[in-house]
Amino acid sequence: MKNLYVVSIVAMKLKETGWTVDQDALATLSSSHKYAREAGLEKALELWPLNEGWINHGAYASEIERESAMAIPTKLSEESSDETEGTEFIM
Questions:
Q1: Where are the alpha helices (DSSP H) in 1-91?
Q2: Residue 68: its pLDDT value, please?
Q3: What is residue 47's predicted lDDT score, i.e. its pLDDT?
Q4: Contacts of 47 (CB under 8 A, 6+ apart)
Q5: End-to-end CA gap in the chain
Q6: What whole-number distance in Å separates Cα of residue 32 and Cα of residue 61?
Q7: DSSP secondary structure string for all residues of 55-76
Q8: CB–CB of 2/30 below 8 Å?
Q9: Most CB within 10 Å of its CB: which of 47, 54, 63, 88?
Q10: What are the Cα distances from residue 25, in Å, to 6, 16, 22, 77?
């Protein structure tokens, strides 16, 4: 069975002005933490190629518990009475 993972990816590049770091977050369905991380690393290498000077690629995966994943559609469809900006953790 596949589970939902959030994967954070990162890479670095030396520019004339110093080091730059780029990062992104992805959602993936994977059969294990190991495969989610490996897929993230492949994506990082695709987005930030070695032949363009990007180095130190990294990927960090975290499984989203099934209960939390099932709550996402409900949370997205709820109309909030709170008009303030902010973050709501669902995990």
A1: 33-47, 66-77
A2: 83
A3: 98
A4: 9, 11, 22, 24
A5: 20
A6: 10
A7: EEEEEEEEEPPHHHHHHHHHHH
A8: yes
A9: 54
A10: 7, 27, 11, 22
Q: Token pair for residue 27?
A: 């959602």
Tokens linked to 6: 């959030």
CA atoms within 13 A on the CB side of 62: 8
Q: What are the residue ranges in the chain where pLDDT is below 70?
A: 79-84, 88-91
How many whole angstroms separate alpha carbon 59 and alpha carbon 41? 5
Name the DSSP letter for residue 17. T
Identity of residue 88: E
Side chain identity at residue 11, one-letter code? A
